[in-house]
Please model this.
Amino acid sequence: MKKSEKKRTEAFDSSEELRRTFRKIRRHRGFIVGFLLLFSLCLLTATSLLFTPHDPYKMNPKASFQPPSWNHPFGTDDFGRDTFSRCMVGSQTALLVGLVSTSISLGFGLLLGLLAGLSSKWVDEIIMRLMDGLYAFPAILFAIALISVLGSNVKNATIAIGIARIPIFAREVRNSVRQVRIKNFAVAARAMGVSYPRQILFYYLPSILAPLTVLTSSSFAYTILSESGLSYLGLGSQPPFPSWGRLLMESQRFLTRAPWLSVFPGIMIAWAVLAFTLLGDGLRDIADPKI
Model:
């Protein structure tokens, strides 16, 4: 009877905590706005995989430099291509690069951070000094240097951005693991001889999930901004494949003649970055309001 009562109490506590979390989410306007912006962006990207209003690659010189209209909401470029359709396809590049680059940073950063946090002092020192050396280079400059060696395309830009962000994830995971390691439940687990894989899975990962989620969200915003910057410099997506940064670079020559060619890709970049930034800030406030 006591065991069943204990289980019911634990279930009640878990459900009550879940309800409190949902209440915090509903009351956090920044999180709601970020979620809606991200949802609409994902919906636009999913739609672009099925169809676009016009062929984003088809040239029509007779329709060049048309201003925004019902038929062409974002106008047309110097080759008569529909800018709205090209921005839609560019969202695929932005989200894919964000997903892959952040996965690279998260995967290797998590592995190195756990290894540094749970290993001996000299292993920790070696890993962290390597991360400090990598972090000493500005991420965008490191990406440019790596792309100059690997070649200019969106694949290499994705890899370069992902590698440049590894030290940030590794340091966050390492610091969080060090804090969890001295807590009573972690000390008790080691004293009972619980294996390292089980400690990581059941003790450390749940404890570092909140800060890692916040960092992942903010990293998405940085990654999309970095990809746009590299594409603007001609080091990311290559013609004829559109990306928001590439669209900005191609339209700068016509800033006075056709300003909409620069305005709308810039709005798309701001849309994506704002969505992930608000989402990350909201997650941080919900996870720890004291921060």
Remarks:
- The chain has one domain: 37-47+75-287.
- Residues 196-232 form the longest helix (37 residues).
- Residues 5-14 have pLDDT under 50 and may be disordered.
